[in-house]
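Late entry, evening session. Most of the bench is empty. Finally got around to the prediction I had been postponing all week. Sequence below, unchanged from the version circulated by S.P.
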Amino acid sequence: MEEKMIIGIQERPSSIVQWVVLSLQHVFAMFGATVLVPILTGLDIGVALVASGVGTLIYIICTKGKVPVYLGSSFAYIGAISVAGATNGFSSAYVGLMVVGIIYAVVATTIRYTGSGWLKKLLPPVVIGPMIIIIGLSLAPVAIGQAGLAPNSGDTYFAFLATSWKNPVIAFITFASVVFVALKGKGFYRIIPFLIAVLVGYVAAVIFGVVDIKLVFDGYSFLQVPNFTFLGTYSIDFSAVLMFAPIAFVTIAEHIGDHTVLGEVTGKDFILDPGLENTLMGDGIATFVSAAIGGPANTTYGENTGVVAMTRVGSVYVTGLAAIFAISLGFFGYIQAFIGSIPSAVIGGMTIILYGLIAGNGVKVLIKSKVNLYNMRNLIIVSAMLVIGIGGAEIVFDASAGSGLTGMSLAAIAGIILNLVLPKTVEE
C-alpha cells in the first residue's frame, strides 16, 4: 500500500545526497539491459542511453507524474532490428519502430474512447505467452554462435576447439558469473547479475588476450556526441512495418503486466489512474522519439520496478533524476568505447541465459494465467504459433527489397486469428 512506501510517488527525497543515491540505483538497475540491446543489434550505445532518459521524461509528462516507471531498451525487437538492419540498413528498423510508437498511440486513443475490453479479447494469455517464448527462442542461434558453440561447417567440435577454444571458455566464465550472482547475490547485486557478468567476462577476455585494453579507447574522447540519426534521413520501408507491427501488441501486453505489478507494489491502480490510455501514450511517444533519433524501442523496466519494491521508494522525482543521469552518460565517449569493445563471447555467455529467460517469461504467462493446455483449442493455438515462429516460416513479397513477413510476425498474426475464429469450449 502507498502508506507503506518510505517515499511516496509524488514526494521528493529529504536531501540532495539521498536523491542522487536513490536515482543512481535506478541507473545501475536499467544500465545493463539498456546498453545490451544496442550491443546485440549494432545500434549506437550513446543514443540508446539518451533515448532511455528522454523517453522516461516523456512518460513522466504524459502520466502527469503519477507513475514511477523507468523506460529502457526493449528486448522484444532485437530479432526484428537485426534482420531489418542486415537486409535494408538500420533506417529500415527505425521506420518499423516509429510505426510501433504510432500503434501505441492509436491503441491508447482507442482505449480512451472505447475502454480496454477489446484489447484483452484480441490478446489473451494463450496468444501472448507463445509470442514471448518465440521472441526468446528465435534468438537462441545468435547466442550459441556468439558463445563459440557452433563449429564451422565440416569441422568436428574438437577440431574447432583446437583453434577457437578461448571463446567458449570466456562464454562459460560469463555464464557461470550470471548464475552465481543470480543465485548467491545479496541485496542490490542480485538485481544486476548481467552487468556483473559482463565485467567478469571482460576481465577474462583481457587475460586471454581477446581484448587489448590499450586499444579500447582509440578514436574516442572523454566527452563525445552520440551518433544520432535523425528522422529526415529515413525512407518508408513497408517490409519493416510488417515485421515490427505485430510485435507491438506483445509489448503492449507486457506494458499492462508491468503496470499491474508496479501497482501491487505501490498500492495504486495505474490502469485506472492515470489510465492505460495515458501510460500507453507515454510509452508510444517515447518509442517514436527514440527511433526518430536512431535509438531502440523503449519499454517499461521490471528491473526498476524491482528497485521500487526493494527500497519502498516510489518517487517520480527519483526516476526523473535517473533519466537525466542516463542522458548525461550517453555523452561520455569512454563509456561507449568500453561497451563497444565487449567481445562476442562475453555477450554469448550472457545471452544463453538472457534469451532463455525471455522465453521462460512466456511460459510463466501461461502458468500464471492458468491457460489449460489440456484443452485442444488452446493447444492448437500454442502449437501453431511455436512452429510458425521458430520454424523459419516467412512470406516474401519482394526478395530484392527484403520485403515480407517473418516467422515472428506470422506467428503473432496466426495466434490472433486462431484465437478469434476457433470456438471456445466449456472446459476452457
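Two things to note before I forget:
The chain has a mean pLDDT of 83.
The chain has 18 helices and four strands.
Will write this up properly tomorrow.
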